[in-house]
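User: My instructor asked us to take a sequence, write out its structure as tokens, and then describe one feature of it. I'm not sure where to start. Here is the sequence I was given:
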Amino acid sequence: MDRYGSIRAPILLDPGMVYSVISQVPFASADQLREAGTYRPAPGASGQLERYLQLPSDLPARDRRLAARITAGLGSTFDMAAAVETWLRTHTEYDLDIPADPPGTDAVDHFLFETRRGFCEHIASAMTVLLRAAGVPARFVVGFGPGERNPLTGYFDVRESDAHAWVEVLYPGVGWMSYDPTFGVPNAAPGASSRFIAPEVLRAVGRFLSRVVPEPLKRLAIVAARAMVRDALPILVVALVVMLVVLARSGGRRRRKRPPPPTGAAGAFSDLAEALAATGRVRSLDRTPDEFLREVATDPTLPPGLAVEARTVIRAFERARFSAA
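Assistant: Let's start with the prediction itself. The structure tokens for your sequence are:
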């Protein structure tokens, strides 16, 4: 672990290398975070904490005034972080197709006062600067989202496209808590498919499917995957033979090209609907997502907590599909 708290391998990771990381995910309720208060460093003090309050000496004064206006009258870190998130969600838009900042401009200031359009790095940077200007220790974090859960193996597939930026806020007695201000910021272009889907949506799908897919089926999938790695050549030969037989039987019949599977919030909603359908709870096409949610929420046979997770998925789908922003 380096001096910034990041995990770094002491050796180069060659392609195909397998490694494991055990993480502890912090959890605290809203009441606990609100009661934690906020750090108040002594004037002129220096140390680890002050690093996360540093701002450029030439930061435009209007950035500080904006931070003061957003957090006016708020005394806890929790309330100030929530206020900054709310402001970003109501005053900025998510957009990947933005021009480069003019030379010599402050990127965060330009985002907050000129364009108000950007992607995760702009939004997370803006939240970090506004919180620090309000006296709240915060840091800008880059990494990867949780990826998509494979319901058969139980593992999460994390790809390069899951790269993301978010914010961590320091709470007294609690530690660093993650915030994803990009989630909830409306798309500049309706239906934009490249939008990062917030981790809570994918976590909700993963938790839901983990309860629906039978455990023996998961174990069978893992065993099959390991067998494929161990005996790759024989399986490839068999697969080739099967493919040739299928092609021969098809007789050259034309097949309609299948549409690509849904992604993002639509994909999460599709996974949710399929998981429920597998248990006999089929959503008919004449029912809206909201009606579907009410049925799930009032079903006494579903495990506790599933209604909350289903709500996360369905509300994200509704925002992506029906939002006019």
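For the description part of your assignment, you could build on this observation: Residues 197-249+262-325 form one domain. Try explaining in your own words what that tells you about the chain.
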